[in-house]
Amino acid sequence: RVTPEQKHTIIKALKTSGNVVAMTGDGVNDTLALKEANCSIAMADGSEVARNISHLVLMESNFSALPAVVKEGRQIVNNVQNSSVLYLMKTLFTISLCICTLIIPNSYPFVPAQLLLLEMFVIGIPSFILTFQPNNDIIRGNFIPQVLKKSIPCAFLMFINIVIIVVMRSNTATITPAEFTTLSTLLITAVGFINLVWVCWPLNLLRAGCVTVSATLIISVLAALGKIFLVTDVTFPVIATLITLLLCSILLVVGTFYLKQWWLARREAQLAQGIEPKPAVWERVWQKVKPKKWAKKSNDLEEQDLIENPEDVTENPAQTEENNKTFEVMEEIVTEPKQTKKSPTKKATKTPAKKQPAKKEATKAPSTKTTSEKKAAKTTTSKTKIVSSKKASEKGLENKKAQK
Hints:
The protein is built from 14 helices and 3 strands. By secondary structure, the protein is mainly alpha-helical. Helix 2 links the parallel strand 1 and strand 2. Helix 6 packs antiparallel against helix 7, helix 7 runs antiparallel to helix 8 and helix 7 runs parallel beside helix 9. The longest helix is centred in the C-terminal third of the chain and has 48 residues.
């Protein structure tokens, strides 16, 4: 049977190897493992300590509810990741553009009205629709790195397009200020829509509906209420510049997608052939930036946490002394009730009250002899039992070694 310390060590070893560990338990002996696990699940019929430590308590004490719980959790986490990409895309874009305008002697190219199309019809409504997407995919990696993997390229794509038109406006006189505001509004909305399609890919019924609703709302609102969003001068230079930049953005997104697919297929082929692939550039950079303490915690186990060899544990002299002490204590506990049971028999052998003084003197001497003999007999029996238990344990160890 696995001890509580061994359960704790097993879960710690699984966590250090990069796994997300869940533990179920209902007793006090499971508390160490429940506390160490990433997700601890207790039964309602279990001990109070296990219920207080656990993250989740099954009120009906029925494990058949766990698949539905896992499915719901996967759907929430994966859909929140997709929605967070859209929100963090705009945040990173605005931060980078603010830093750029502080370095370059140019004013910030947007007013709040220009970003309403992006915020309402590219981020707000699509992120709400994506939360209802059924998703049973396995949750991979940590939440923030997975969100940044998609949001940083999307923000970079938006930033590059806006910087191009800002530089073009400052160095050339091809577009007027009104045309610049129109171009910047249309460009930021269109590039955001391209990023929305990228986030929703591969498309299914709900994701295709989300993309279609976003496109129809953008086109209809621009046609009816374009002046509210400062889309006033839609001229030929504006349309030509917009189409050119959008085509370059689409080519960049499609090329990045197929490059990623090629890299993943090459990596899987190397693993299938038994060749260990080289880590990517960002993985090498992360290994260098990674703190030493983090590496020790995630890659190495301390010596005291390792599962020891059971033969070494039994042959440890300190443990044998503790075992001997426990044997002695158990023998004392076993012999105590025998003494208490013999006391009423002595009272029953007493004679009537008239002959009591004479028989007390006669029975005193043999009583002292019998007690001393009993004590000696008990000590000898306890010693023989301890010796026999030691021999039995040694024979058990020899049998285990022979079986191994």
